[in-house]
Amino acid sequence: MGKRRILVVEDDPDIGNMLQTYFESQGFEISVAVRGQEALSLTRHFLPHLIVLDIILPDLDGYEICRQLRSSSRTGHIPILFLTQRDERRDRLAGLELGADDYITKPFDIEELRLRVMNAMSRAEQESLTDPHTGLPTSRQIQNRLEEILPRKGWSMLNCRLMHFDSYRSAYGDSACDDFLRFTSDLILQTVDELGAPDDFIGYAGGDSFVVVTEEARAAALDAQLKDRFKQSIPGKYSYVDQQRGYLTVRNAAGAEARMPLVSLAVSVIHASQHNFSDVRQITELAASAGPAGG
Question: What is the 8-class DSSP label of residue 237?
């Protein structure tokens, strides 16, 4: 499994540096933001598995950051742990009412903080809110998002599949596949962040499938750009030999060697304007049966 990501939002450089050093020594990937707007931007780019959030910041306070993150379909699933000097009951309640997962006051015990972080991440994964490999919302959250948009007009869903991913697993192993999933999620996040809107939804449906929900006017550009960027970036995921010959050599069920294509990204696009959906299951069944266009 790739490193889990933590975003620390803290304007005190001593605390920020200490948390970064400590959690990196525990095997996490850490980003630090010192202002609220920076935290919101980093969350969209970095998509952390958890956010450690100070309340008192130079621009937006932690409560407003929490409110904005919780109100967005792209970031609403991320566990948030408030870290602050405030120890009054009303402050703790205010944070929890906004959807924070936990609350710890300064000065704090670093081991206690680590345990609270681990517990919050575990809860999110056990409740099928966050995928541990990609940090993206999982099938349960995808279902919730589709239920929200079902009665609306003008939306589109991109079903993105990694074709021949099983062959890649056979050739390179589970650890490399975890890195490949993270690579794909990052590529989708960056593309949607540049061409989409802040509230466009990105989810990991499991296996080889990702989902993007956006407005119909943006779907075509996202479709084309995702496939183009994937094709440009994919050589780095293979050995030099596999890159040069353009295929993988794997053994089939009978033990014989077989040539398999390299992984490609295929996208099928569903437009609400072209259908009359009355149930989320109709959307998912159409996505499963649609023949995705490869890139």
Answer: G
Round the average pLDDT of the chain to a whole number and report it. Answer: 90
Q: Which residue has the tokens 């990196």?
A: 24
Confidence (pLDDT) at 84:
80
Q: Is residue 133 part of a domain?
A: no
Please state the pTM of the whole predicted model. Answer: 0.81
CATH of residue 115's domain is 3.40.50.2300
CA distance 235 to 100: 41
DSSP 198-261: TT-EEEEEETTEEEEEEEHHHHHHHHHHHHHHHHHHGGGGS-HHHHHHTEEEEE-TTS-EEEEE
Whether 40 and 69 have beta carbons less than 8 Å apart is answered as yes
Residues 274, 159 within the same domain: yes
Asked if 6 contacts 117 with a C-beta cutoff of 8 angstroms, the reply is yes
Q: Does a structural domain hold residue 162? A: yes
Residue pLDDT, tens place only, 132-175? 889 899 988 899 999 999 999 999 999 999 999 999 998 999 99
N-to-C CA span, the chain: 27
Residue 159 and residue 266 in one domain:
yes
For residue 107, cis peptide bond before it (omega within 30 degrees of 0): yes
